[in-house]
Each structure stands twice: as structure tokens, then as C-alpha cells.
Specification:
five-stranded parallel beta sheet; alpha/beta
Length: 182
């Protein structure tokens, strides 16, 4: 077991610099934040920035074990155009994560456009499963696995969400049924 830390603590720094700062405090394993993946994606020279990050991790003897891919993605967005934009953003994050040595990308279940209730739960699970199977097909050749993260209901609005209990998550895992998804 490696104690790990989320690089979001130093989101105002380049990823390589954030990893170096945290490694000086004893951290050896990292979850790369969405913001850092976006910084790599949008840098003036993404290939150079990715190489610099990978070299820094190697030099420091640390591991970038997982990354939280596009945190705002809604893979069950009822607007198909917006859903496809999110999927493409996730795939770009997958490609970058793979290049910096990440093994697992963390994703949230898609929440659709309305609160979860008994009448729409199965259709929401089905749409999530369809998209997650597509994403697994993209992740597998890159050497990545996808970890779906549990969610919380919205305390502010009382909105019910998909992935707040073990039965929902297991239902989604069974529906996707892919060894790259867990």
C-alpha cells in the first residue's frame, strides 16, 4: 500500500512542480487532478510538458498511480452533443494519463438531467453502462483501468444521485461487465 495524495492541493503549479513539492514532504504516490490533466492538455507544448512530468516522476522515484479524469463530465447528459463533448474530453485525459504512467483513471457516474428516482434509475444505469463500455474500449489499449467513484446526494438541493449506495454501484459494474471497469 502506498499512501497517496491528490495533486489538486497544488493546482496553481505545473504538475511536475506539484509532485516535486509533495515528494519533499514524503509523498511517493499521487492521484493527478483534473486540473493538472487540463494544464497538460492546454500547455503551449503538451508533448514537452508530458515528457517533463514523466521525467520528474522518474527522477524523484514517485508514482502517478491514478488520475481523476474530467471531473465535470456527465456521461449521461440528456443533451447528446454535450455528452459527446464530455466523452471526448475524457478520452483526451485518458491519453495524457497513459503517457505520464497513470494506471487507473477515476470517473463519476453520469447524473443525467434530473434527480434519480425509481422511475428513471434503470435508464440512467443503462446509458452510463453504454458510455462506460465505450470508454473501457478506449482505456484498455492505453493500459488503463477505470474506477467509478461513489457519489453523495446533494445536501444543498436534496437531489438524489446515481452511485450513492453500494447496490447502485454494483448494478452499474454488472451492467458494464468489463474487466477494465471497477
Amino acid at each position: 500500500m502506498f499512501p497517496g495524495i491528490w495533486t489538486s492541493l497544488f493546482v496553481d503549479h505545473r504538475l511536475a512542480d506539484a509532485v516535486e513539492i509533495l515528494s519533499r514532504h514524503g509523498w511517493r504516490a499521487f492521484e493527478v487532478s483534473t486540473e493538472h490533466l487540463d494544464h497538460l492538455l492546454r500547455s503551449a507544448d503538451p508533448d514537452d510538458e508530458i515528457r517533463h512530468t514523466r521525467e520528474a516522476a522518474e527522477r524523484l522515484g514517485v508514482r502517478l498511480l491514478q488520475a481523476h479524469a474530467y471531473i465535470r463530465a456527465n456521461v449521461a447528459n440528456p443533451d447528446q452533443i454535450e455528452r459527446e463533448k464530455d466523452i471526448l474530453h475524457l478520452i483526451r485525459h485518458f491519453e495524457i494519463a497513459s503517457q505520464i504512467g497513470v494506471q487507473v483513471v477515476v470517473l463519476h457516474p453520469g447524473q443525467g438531467g434530473e434527480p434519480v428516482h425509481d422511475d428513471n434509475l434503470q435508464s440512467l444505469v443503462d446509458l452510463n453502462a453504454e458510455v462506460f463500455r465505450r470508454l473501457c474500449a478506449q482505456a484498455r489499449p492505453l493500459g488503463l483501468q477505470i474506477a467509478v467513484e461513489n457519489m453523495m446526494d446533494s445536501a444543498k438541493t436534496g437531489k438524489r444521485r446515481l452511485g450513492v449506495n453500494a447496490d447502485q454501484l454494483l448494478g452499474l459494474l454488472r451492467a458494464v461487465n468489463d474487466p477494465a471497469f471497477g
